[in-house]
Amino acid sequence: MRILEHPILGKMPPRKVVKIEMEGRVLEAFEGEPIAAALTAHGICVFRYTRVRKEPRGISCAIGQCTDCVMVVNGIPNTRTCVTRVEDGMKIQRQE
Q1: pTM to 2 decimal places
Q2: Cβ contacts of residue 46 below 8 Å, gap of 6+?
Q3: Owning domain of residue 60
Q4: What is the domain count for the chain?
């Protein structure tokens, strides 16, 4: 879900649409938006599982200070998805 028209900010300006891959599923995203925002827009809210108790984690602080949103992005683990911007062709995986 995306807010396409905000009562104060107005309509969202046109943006370039790119494709990213989340565990084999191809998703459309806006180039330059945070990965976490793109995934959330597609209803994906679990980004990783805790090491010991295997509890789900997603967006928490949304400013890159915690590690709840870390995922494997283009083979690089521990990537903070709330501050990492979408690029065309990114491959994203949940981190366990």
Answers
A1: 0.90
A2: 56, 57, 58, 94
A3: 16-93
A4: 1
Residue with tokens 């366990």: 96
Which of 80, 69, 22 lies closest to 46, judged by CA?
69
Q: Is residue 7 part of a domain?
A: no
Spell out the residues 6+ positions from residue 51 whose beta carbon is closer than 8 angstroms to its own: 96
What average pLDDT does this structure show over 68-83?
96
Query: pLDDT category, 3, cuts 50, 70, 90?
Result: confident
pLDDT bracket for residue 2 (50, 70, 90): confident
Phi, psi of 35 (to 5 degrees): -55, -45
Residue 1 is assigned to a structural domain of this protein? no
Q: Is 13 helix (H, G, I), strand (E, B) or coil?
A: coil
CATH of the domain at 75: 3.10.20.440
